[in-house]
Amino acid sequence: MTRLIVISNRVSPPDGEGKSNQGGLAVALSSALRETNGIWFGWSGNEIDEFTGQINLSRADGVTTATIDLEAQDVEEYYNGFANRTLWPLFHDRTDLAEFERGFAGGYARVNDRFAETLLPLIAPDDDIWVHDYHLIPLGRELRQRGVRNRTAFFLHTPWPVLRLLIALPSHRQLVETLFAYDLIGFQCQTWLDSFLHYVREQFPEAVVDEQGTIAIDGRQVRVIACPIGIDAQEFKASAASAEAEEARRALLGTLDGRKLIMGVDRLDYSKGLEQRFNGYERLLLDHPDYQEGVSLLQIAPPSREDVVSYQDIRKQLEALSGHINGEFATAFWVPLRYVNRGYDRTSLAGMYRAASVGLVTPLRDGMNLVAKEYVAAQDPADPGVLVLSRFAGAAEQMAAALLVNPFSPEELSDALGQALRMPLEERKARWHALMESVERQDVRWWLRRFLDALHGKAIEPVMMPAASPPNGGDRGAESRPAPAARFVAQND
Ligand code: ADQ
Predict the structure, then answer these.
(1) What DSSP state is assigned to residue 352?
(2) Strand 403-405's sheet: what is its strand order?
(3) Active-site residue identified among 133, 232, 266, 366
(4) What was the pLDDT predicted at 213?
(5) Which of 207, 226, 245 is the last residue of a domain?
(6) What pLDDT is recorded for position 493?
(7) What's the predicted TM-score (pTM) here?
(8) Which residues of the chain have pLDDT under 70?
(9) How far is CA 331 from the centre of its chain?
(10) Could you give the angle at which helices 274-287 and 410-421 cross, rounded to 10 degrees?
């Protein structure tokens, strides 16, 4: 098998103490790296006074990692700057939050150049090179300019924005042009792929895009695919049924006094729609007082990117909003909303998902969203909960059997919550079976195989779109009226 070199902003190797805290992506990449005796290259997370290009090699659980330290200015301009204050908001439709500073763009170019320069001596002629995410878009071109002829691919974990938003970036054409250095570009879903192709057709009229999804430009052929990332469904399912998860489930249920639990789990990020989610929940309690004292919302949201002001702002807003909702509705015996700013180990999380009657996953924009898939994988087949999912998450393309909602509308959220809370067991089971089928079939190993097959020029099946109407002919959340009634490491950070 061809040796694989994975490059991402941060590396997430096995810790050598079992893999329970590694997410599915890290597990799948680690296993491919182990099998091919490959290397995972990235930033160590450390800052040094002056960049040296020194590589720190280490090996854990059969996986070799190679990391470099960056200067404080690199971190400020590349990571906190261009990656997280320019591209991240722009790629999540938040042009209002995107900051366009030449210093950021310069730092981004410099760090990509440093990555390329340092990585170069590690590359052997037959290696497959796989670059991940928006931090490293120009890396492929940097490598090509240094003579690298290897098969080289890029996978974008975030959405690809629509043309009219992307052109707000002063250097949009130059940035996209660098992508043509790759042999393969993967997107999370068809919608992001379509946006990308629309941009290419409009901005590069000389490009020829064929029906198989190959772009011919500048004498190069670039294959583009939709390749939805999955989770390690078997492992997550087993972990949700373990004694440790059961303990977490019982402990959580024990605090609820028989009330139904609605649960959300997200990195604290404005793209996750937490403010709108809280507003939707408030609307449920206002419009349907019968649910007061009958439900509880648990929102787990560990802080991320705390050096970026917009993240400090969203944290303050959510603190105020959760205080407002609890102030408005709480009684001496009931707290309507538990807002928790910390992470949990994956097994406890699996148990908690299983305790929840409703998984509330309502990002305003999300490349995929793995929490939606984890929630489904964690359910008890005999009594599964209901997934309420944003139409604007990449996951919605594969998960049409969820209650799909517009997260900007408090009424739709409230309606969907009501529908989920009163859904009969038969309909819950039918929807869950349809969801679980795709979560299990299109898991993280399927994703990895599909991507590497495409890189090797093999034909790949289209991602099967589940039937548009949910099982049982059930109605959609948006359209129905409710009856009264340890340790966390963000992988792609
Ligand atoms: P993220 O934006 O980080 O990833 P997501 O897909 O939701 O989003 O993955 C988050 C992961 O972190 C999940 O595995 C989840 O269980 C875990 N997690 C979140 N909160 C946690 C907590 N409090 N404790 C423990 N674990 C927690 C980016 C893109 C996504 C895309 C992924 C993978 O933004 O759209 O799905 O990459 O490609």
Answers:
(1) H
(2) 337-340, 295-300, 260-265, 358-361, 386-390, 403-405
(3) 366
(4) 92
(5) 226
(6) 53
(7) 0.93
(8) 14-22, 24, 464-493
(9) 36
(10) 60
Full residue range of the structural domain in which residue 239 is found: 233-440+467-492
CATH number for the domain spanning 283: value is 3.40.50.2000
Q: Answer for the pair 273, 308: CB distance below 8 angstroms, yes or no.
A: no
Is 487 strand, coil or helix? coil
> Does 107 reside within a domain?
yes
CA max distance for the chain: 71
Predicted confidence at residue 288, as pLDDT, reads: 95
In b/e form, how buried is each residue of 38-72, taking b as 16+ CB within 10 angstroms? bbbbbbbeeeeeebeeebeeeeeeebbbbbbbbbe
Cβ of 350 below 6 Å from ligand 1: no
Q: State whether the beta carbon of 490 lies less than 6 angstroms from ligand 1.
A: yes
Q: What is the pLDDT of residue 462?
A: 86
- Give the per-residue pLDDT at 393: 98
Residue 487: the pLDDT is 35
Regarding whether 153 and 20 lie in a shared domain, the answer is: yes
Active site (annotated) includes residue 157: yes
- The residue type of 196 is F
Do 303 and 347 form a contact (C-beta atoms < 8 A)? Answer: no
pLDDT value of residue 17: 54
288 C-alpha to ligand 1 centroid (Å): 32
Q: How many residues does the chain have?
A: 493
Any atom of ligand 1 within 6 Å of the Cβ of 265: yes
